[in-house]
Amino acid sequence: MTAPITQDVLTIPRKLPEGGKTNLVGLTRDGLRAALIAAGTPEKQAKMRLGQVWQWVYHWGVRDFALMTNLAKDYRALLAENFVIEIPEVVTRQISEDGTRKYLVRIAGGHEVEVVYIPETDRGTLCISSQVGCTLTCSFCHTGTQKLVRNLTAAEIVGQVMLARDDLDEWPVPGALKEEVRLISNVVLMGMGEPLYNFENVRDAMNIVMDGEGIALGRRRITLSTSGVVPEIARTATEIGCQLAVSFHATTDEVRDVLVPINKRWNIATLLEALKAYPGLSNSERITFEYVMLDGVNDTKEDAYRLVKLLEGIPAKVNLIPFNEWPGAPYKRSSGNRIHTFADIIYKAGYASPIRTPRGEDIMAACGQLKSATERERKSKARIEAEAGLS
Ligand code: SAH
Ligand code: SF4
Prior knowledge:
alpha/beta; DNA polymerase, domain 1; TIM Barrel; 2 domains; two-stranded parallel ribbon; disordered N terminus; binds S-adenosyl-L-homocysteine; binds iron/sulfur cluster
């Protein structure tokens, strides 16, 4: 039987409609070089120009060609005639009691995605989205209930990192001492969407974020979370090289089929095989198994023992996520006792088993609660109308 899982979502072209100018953001180094040449940059100069423009955009965070002072005036004019430097627009920013920031971001076509910044004592994590909504329908995930889906472009993905750096004022200042502490020290692809269903754009965006001449985040500081798109897993290591997290969430196919329906396409055994073969897997680079704790569904001692058995032979750590409830969610969060008992069993079997502290709950910014505001409004409007007998 084939599960009803589709991948036929749209990606908008890079060429912008107005004036036919190309957005420089999101182009790979090769792509940017080709674009500069197509716009009239002599081939002999292309390498140098590429380096200069790249640094302005990704190291200094400059959006205006006029500020690229080491370029001749007429070259700046040529760039401005042909290109734009455009990132998504922040519509609203909410700041939680605990310092977590949630940005509602508008992208082309009027769609919206959410981006979350989580400051901690030893790090700052930016949680970014790869799609508007998600074609998958994990039964505990708010994003999965959103109808509207489209792939984000590479520009829209790297743009999320850039807009957060704008907001946190994290671009370097010429002449200032090099920043030792980074506000955004880690990026996780754990926002809206399934990153491996938008592989090329996620890959290009992450390669830009990791590029040493720009934002320069190390590959170990980027984590991609997948629900288990088996055919794309190996490419994550070879073409991106970032850390991998897997939304595991259950220890039997029966339960995982319900929680993570992609399991009907690639079941637990198939997924584990792909993970065992993950290139570069070692004790220092473990796969994170995410496991959401749902009261009475997947949280027994037997589940914990089964999980330990399944992990055999895989350098792994287990991240336990207390379920974040959302209005109308069909599950409850497991009790603290249950979660700790579960964590202990995993830990005693030799695996790190941290319990994720829910962050930004007051602004609905926690894992799995992201959903665009327009979708929420539509929903609540429909609900209000239904209650008032209007529909
Ligand atoms: N689509 C990808 C990445 C985004 S979700 C994936 O599924 O892996 C990031 C993590 O949050 C996943 O492990 C996801 O299963 C989990 N999650 C989703 N909804 C949640 C909720 N309501 N409470 C806790 N975790 C949730
Ligand atoms: Fe999509 Fe991940 Fe949510 Fe599942 S958990 S519906 S894959 S965003």
